[in-house]
Write a structure and sequence with these properties.
The protein is mainly α and 392 residues long. The protein has 16 helices and four strands. The strands form two sheets. Strands 1-2 form a two-stranded antiparallel ribbon.
Length: 392
């Protein structure tokens, strides 16, 4: 089975046996041009042989291209699953062909995830297949392979970076390895569901959820907020404040936070956050200084931790709730209100405003929210009731 070993930092000379202190001192003085940080994932086979091509691929994306930690983690998970599947089948990664990739894809169709015990979604399957194709295209391009059946010159996915205007190219859609994928519309939470969910959430998760509901922030964007971002200027007699944020892909952006949300955040800062920091210091833990959202241990709230809390709380309330649904609820509600203002004569472009507020790169992503708003659930329920009455 393929193993992931995280790179550790070099020990200090006083931490090693006396016979190795000279080597540890010399090692600490060696300067590396592009050092891999502590925690960098190294992939090994079951015989503890380093998968050099996979590590080089991750190194390029993490260090040279400076992708975000979430992107590198995603690539790591994809390569781990692919190399592990090849090893279980007794196939070397250099000899993998189209039949092996199709078998890998079909296995995900037929068997649930060993991690979540749930069936794979079509989106997840296609995402992993695209990741494998990107790796082999990179391996051929960088000389790790002379050629591969998994590299289609007509469907080279590296060209997608140069065709930003056409997000979903026809060549990509015709890729024989990908499953047919239908677009799903967002299904926002109702006002009653939002109130029930917020009432059940504990601090600080209820406040993070409010930031998503009131501003449309992504999970990673909300959790990266710092005290300086939110409270860099003194409070004034205004109804809102513009907060600068770092968007997905390290793009600069901003959100508009209502003053009521900022007041709730200030109360959390002065009460819960300060107490948790003091408790962490008393117990010898190093409290986080800059991050806005801390847990009861005084450390930053983690993405998966927050997502699990939202999901479990939604299940306890009797409906599906995810962090992305909170963001979708903001998008649909904001778009519905802006559409009403536009019909009343306001000179605004609702779709463009929501696109900017949500940090979408493509307008077709925002258009999904417009189509979701167009489906009036109340009118739809009335139509269904009338059909039932006619049948009776």
């Amino acid at each position: 089975m393929v193993e992931i070993i995280r790179k550790a930092s070099l020990p200090r000379p006083e931490e090693v046996p006396p016979g190795l202190r000279a080597a540890a001192t010399a090692a600490s003085g060696i300067k590396v041009r592009e050092p891999r940080p502590a925690g960098f994932a190294l992939l090994f086979t079951s015989q503890m042989q380093l998968l050099e091509a996979a590590v080089a691929f991750l190194h390029e994306h993490a260090i040279q291209r400076a992708h975000t930690a979430d992107t590198v983690r995603t690539y790591t998970e994809i390569l781990y699953d692919w190399f592990d599947a090849l090893e279980q089948s007794g196939i070397t990664w250099r000899d993998a062909d189209a039949i092996d990739l199709v078998a890998y894809r079909n296995r995900m169709l037929e068997h649930p995830s060993a991690h979540t015990t749930r069936p794979y979604s079509v989106r997840t399957i296609n995402h992993r297949v695209r990741g494998v194709l990107r790796f082999y295209a990179w391996a051929v391009r960088n000389g790790w392979l002379h050629d591969s059946q998994l590299v289609d010159r007509g469907n080279d996915l590296t060209l997608a970076r140069h065709t930003r205007a056409k997000r979903y190219t026809r060549e990509l859609d015709r890729c024989v390895f990908l499953l047919r994928q239908f677009e799903s519309l967002p299904r926002p939470l109702t006002s009653a569901q939002v109130r029930e969910l917020l009432a059940e959430l504990t601090t600080p998760y209820d406040l993070i959820a409010r930031w998503q509901l009131y501003t449309g922030l992504r999970v990673s964007e909300a959790l990266h907020l710092t005290l300086q971002d939110v409270f860099k200027s003194a409070a004034s007699q205004v109804t809102y404040r513009v907060i600068d944020v770092m968007r997905k892909g390290r793009k600069a952006g901003y959100v508009i936070a209502p003053m009521s949300l900022l007041e709730e955040t200030a109360a959390y800062r002065d009460r819960h956050r300060r107490v948790w920091q003091k408790r962490a210091a008393r117990k010898g833990r190093k409290p986080t200084r800059s991050a806005l959202f801390l847990n009861r241990r005084g450390s930053s709230v983690k993405k998966r931790q927050y997502q699990r809390v939202i999901q479990r709380t939604g299940q306890a309330c009797g409906f599906k709730a995810t962090s992305h649904l909170l963001r979708a609820t903001f998008g649909c509600m904001m778009l519905a209100r802006l559409e009403r203002l536009a019909r009343e004569g306001a000179a605004i472009n609702p779709l463009l405003i929501v696109k900017i507020l949500m940090g979408h790169e493509h307008i077709d992503t925002t258009d999904r929210y417009l189509r979701a708003v167009a489906v009036d659930t109340h009118s739809l329920s009335e139509v269904l009731d009338s059909l039932v009455s006619l049948r009776q």
